[in-house]
Amino acid sequence: MTSADALGHVGYLLLFAGMTLISANRPIGWALRLGGEDLWIGISAYLGLSSGVLWGLAFAYIDIRTYRRLRR
Length: 72
Known about the structure:
Layout: H1 3-23, H2 28-47, H3 50-71
């Protein structure tokens, strides 16, 4: 297993935990989701995958926007 692959598992674990907590109405889930997304953006940049960086930024933007909207 490469280090990028191992970090990918951590990123997906953070995304999974974040979504699970969000579904239980726990706001900390948003931070975990954003952390997982940030990790995947970094992995994608390291591997030269522009699609992963672009879509990772798009999903991070949506997460931040949704969190702010729900806090109102």
